[in-house]
Design brief:
With about 170 residues, the protein is α/β, with parallel strands linked by helices. It has 7 helices and 6 strands, in the order E-H-E-H-E-H-E-E-H-E-H-H-H. Helix 1 runs antiparallel to helix 7.
């Protein structure tokens, strides 16, 4: 059994300016996790992403997958591949980190930020995986347009509702 952890800032995704869209993307991530028969622990606290993850890892036995909530194209198959290959990471296009699979929480260090994928790979001795649904995070509306045809049902439903409201 793998524990799934999602760092998520409620009301977040300030660059998108749309907390409902952020929530729809989070729901797509949790749906992919649920399709594996697992549940996600969503962490949000007063600290930054790294601090939130460290606090949560202190309560979880391994193996653990840490998956960002802004990857609405993720599939259960990709999550399964990530966890089977632990220690492993999936970098975002910009070199930050979208997903990490570790065997034990004690191996984690909060290395998030610009260039974090290289730091995590080196620190964990992790293999870097090229899984498009995990690689393609959505930080901006341009990112969303790039992946729009592959997003999960919750994000797709929200975008259709948004289009209808703009048309009326």
């Amino acid at each position: 059994m793998t524990h799934f952890l999602i760092p998520y800032r409620f009301g977040g995704k300030t660059r998108l300016g749309d907390s409902e869209l952020a929530l729809a993307m989070l729901e797509d991530v949790t749906d992919a996790i649920n399709a594996l028969g697992e549940e996600a622990l969503i962490v949000s606290g007063p600290g930054g992403q790294g601090e939130d993850v460290v606090r949560a890892l202190a309560t979880l036995p391994g193996p653990i997958a840490i998956v960002n909530g802004d990857v609405p194209c993720v599939s259960a198959e990709e999550l399964d591949e990530l966890t089977k290959r632990a220690p492993a990471i999936v970098a975002a296009r910009d070199g930050t980190t979208n997903a990490i699979a570790i065997l034990d929480g004690a191996s984690f260090a909060p290395l998030y930020g610009a260039g974090s994928a290289a730091r995590f790979a080196a620190h964990l001795g992790a293999q870097r995986l090229a899984l498009p649904g995990l690689r393609d995070d959505v930080d901006t509306w341009e990112d969303l347009e790039r992946v729009r045809d592959r997003v999960g049902k919750n994000t797709r439903r929200y975008l259709k509702r948004l289009e209808r409201s703009r048309a009326s």
